[in-house]
Amino acid sequence: MTPRPGAAPVLTAPMTSAASSLAGWTAVVLAGGPGTRMRSALPKALHPVAGVPMVRLVCDLLRAAGCTSIVVVARDAIEEIGAAAGEYVRMARQDGGRGTAHAVLAAREVASERGPLLLLHGDMPLLTTRTLLEMAGRHVAAPSSLTFLTAYLPDPKGYSRVERRNGKVHGIVAEADLSPAMRGAPEVDAGMYAVEAEWLWRALTAVAPNAGGELALGDLISLAVRGDGVEAYQVAETAEVLPVNDRVDLARAERILRDRVRERLMLEGVTLLDPATTYVDAGVEVGEDTVLLPGTTLSGRTRIAGGCRIGPNAVLIDTTVGARTSIGASTIEGSIIGEGVDIGPYCHLRPGSLIGNAVHLGNYVEVKASTIGARTQAGHFCYIGDTTIGADVNIGAGTITANYDGVDKHRTVIGDGAFIGSDTVLVAPVTVGTEARTAAGAIVTQDVPDGATVIGVPARVRSSVSEGGRRA
Q1: How much is the pLDDT for 246?
Q2: Is residue 170 located within the same domain as residue 202?
Q3: How far apart (Å, rounded) are the C-alpha atoms in residues 367 and 377?
Q4: What is the pTM of this model?
Q5: What is the mean pLDDT of residues 202-227?
Q6: In a shared domain, residues 202 and 340
Q7: pLDDT class for 471, splitting at 50, 70, 90?
Q8: Which of 10, 15, 258, 383 gives 20 to 30 Å between its CA and that of 56?
Q9: How many angstroms separate the CA atoms of 95 and 103, rounded?
């Protein structure tokens, strides 16, 4: 398996001017935006990009950069956002929506009173650890009160513009206050700030409400200019700072992030025969020399070892796959697949399935909450539900484990080396012993002893192993 650097697929190698780590920093992530333009009951921070909630992508970037002190500020759905954000996270509630500076103030009780702080937004899923580390390094090296991120955008509409005099930052101007000369200015405040905690908490008390009654975090820049100065750091790729405000932005971010995921996998030794039609979530890991065929979708916490062949049109969700396994156009959810397994097309493995090494599942095999032992084969048209199957078992075509009696689910147990004939129905709860056999079409309603053969409807024992080892 490839090591997991964090759910977000990013380049983490810093430039020379970057900080080596965000250890010792506290990050404040603003995730309280209502997301009105998303037109959704789901809080904006919880909308997924490449299968991962935006707030989790941002927090994973921080963790990948070494930050273990993260404060997430939200207005609603506090528990849900906290659960999505992951480890090392403390939550702060913003009462009301009085702007970004007000949101940061809400974090004061749980954030640090001293030391460096990084302030950023939870709707910027395209940031990279490189940018976080480089900006932190710039702030540490500069004597200024505040370092902020800027970007040059071809279409800066909607952003506050950076005002410079003789090349130095003089302040920022909100779009509503732009003069005609500045309206086309391309340098914008990208909304990420590095500050010292002691300076920040003092400065926030001096931020005045704007015309809409909100406290804007960007006003810190003007305060820093009048104090110890401000440092601007320009992001290398403008895509990193593009926020997600509506479904169009969401689709754009999805496209960019999935391109990064595919590129990362290929650089790590994974073959994608048609990258454009291969969909891999940001939290997925794939080992070297695995081949992903067109139409394949890998979602959630899926982990695939090396040397596998997946697809075409396979769908794997929260599934772990061992080395040298082949999976055709099947759907697999919440399952663990061993090494050297062969799963053909049109199979459906539902959550809780555990498939042993060198198992063969042919086509149209459905498995649910079952364990299948090593080298067992189920070639065609089977339903295996709530079942424990031993090693070296043959499951004949058309076999059904009748696990539901209309009220409760019951388990079926099949011992090592058993042979289940075609069209057998095993009416649970029932146990088929080691090296036992069922004839074609048998309806098994009673336990089958070790070594016995049963036939008929209902099935009855035809032969069994005597004490001397011969069939009676």
Answers
A1: 93
A2: yes
A3: 13
A4: 0.87
A5: 87
A6: no
A7: very low
A8: 15
A9: 8
Query: What's the one-letter identity of residue 9?
Result: P
397 and 280 within one domain: yes
Contacts made by residues 258-267, CB under 8 angstroms, sequence distance 24+: 258/50, 260/9, 260/10, 261/9, 261/50, 264/9, 265/292
Same domain, 243 and 315: no
In this structure, are strands 387-389 and 412-414 parallel, antiparallel, or unpaired?
parallel
Taking the alpha carbons at both ends of the chain, their separation in whole angstroms is 52
- Indicate whether 294 pLDDT > 80: yes
| Rounded-to-integer distance, Cα 180 and Cα 37, Å | 28
User: What torsion, rounded to 10 degrees, do the Cα atoms 203, 208, 214, 218 define?
Assistant: -50
- 110 belongs to a structural domain: yes
Please compute the mean of the pLDDT values over residues 300-325 and round it to a whole number: 98
Q: Which of 170, 348, 360, 380 is catalytic?
A: 380
pLDDT of residue 119: 97
Question: 216 near 174, Cβ under 8 Å?
Answer: yes
Residue carrying structure tokens 């528990």: 79
- Residue 58 pLDDT exceeds 80: yes
Q: What is the mean pLDDT of residues 386-413?
A: 96
Angle between helices 54-64 and 78-85 (to 10 degrees): 40
Contact in structure between 285 and 308 (CB atoms under 8 Å): no
By three-state DSSP, how is residue 47 classified? coil
Q: Vertex 357, ends 351 and 360: CA angle to 5°?
A: 75
Do β-strands 425-427 and 309-310 pair in parallel, antiparallel, or remain unpaired?
Answer: unpaired
Range of the domain at 107: 26-247
380 a catalytic residue: yes
Give strand pairing partners of 77. none
Assess whether 154 and 200 both reside in one domain. yes
Instruction: Tell me: do 132 and 165 sit in the same domain.
Output: yes
Residues 129 and 166 in one domain: yes
Domain count, the chain: 2
If asked whether residues 62 and 99 sit together in one domain, one would say yes
